[in-house]
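hey can u check if this looks right to u? its 367 residues, i copy pasted from the old doc so theres a chance i mangled smth
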Amino acid sequence: MKQPPRPRRSRFSSAPEASSTPEVSSESSQGFVAPEEAPGEGSSSDTVASSPEASVSDRPAPSLAQASSVEEKKEAERAARRKRNRELRRARREASAQSPSSGELLNRPLGQSDAAAILGSSDESATADLNERRRERTHAHRRLLLTRVASACGGVIVVCALVWGVFFSPLFALDMSKVSIEGLGDDTTTQNEVRAAIEPFASVPLPRLKTSAIDEQIAKVRLVREVNVQRSWPRGLSVQIRPRQAILAVKDGSSWALVDDQGVTVSSASTAPEGMAPTTLPDGDQRAQAAADVAAIWTAMGDDLRSNITMITHDGQTISMTLTNSRTLNWGVAKDNELKAKVAAVLISQRQARNYDVSSPVHPVTS
């Protein structure tokens, strides 16, 4: 009788010694009858069968029932493995759900645990989780990029709003009611002229207002000698003015024009005020320089010498003076004024003469 093939031994099956015993019992249950033996022989055969030193050839061949039993065991083991794999995959998904989010991982360097949370394990069952982590990381990159773009746009909008508010809005526009003018005293006429010069700059924001341009406009006012304009935030101006001061009395027909050291007429009077130099100035471009020369000479003189002068004449080149008692004083050019003033005062007080010449102060001449 042909025997069935012997089943392949599984690595999960029990030891051969353990499986041999039930196989014998199964075979005896199917009608196998052993020959009767003597009482003494039965015990010896049992001893041989149970002995581990028995040869393989003495064991009976496995039957069909034994092969089917082995197959059922293998199938049960495969089912158990599939069940364990499903449980492992479920456990991985739960662990990945509790791992740090991709947005948090992008804000710090990746460690081994974070890399494992993003990339997943090397098992084939983690492929779906790996793709999901990659998609999450891509979305996190996009969100980060959009956040940065939105922040940059917001910053640009804020800067533009500030620039408009400071340089173009009426928030810092010049208000004429907040313009203060100092230095003119009670001269309301000149104050009104100064305000009229500032008027074209009204409603211009102070950050865009050029104070130098305002200085130029105010300097055109006749009685303003010097001006200093400063911004007074948020909407005003502070104007400091040095007015012109008359120092010369210039004969003008029947009246006297009161002139400063730049030849500008400040006011007029019917008589020459006391303390001012009675002067005759040339017209045209030489007037300003001539007024400056005469003012410098008048300042260098003492009161004794001034009291003897009735008229100072400047012809554009040299200076001559008319003294009391029809005497004359030739000054020459406007140089060495202090020395000339001292020499002239000594000559007039010590020598009686009709003409005094101090054009060369180290060699004065009288006649």
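The first helix runs from residue 16 to 29.
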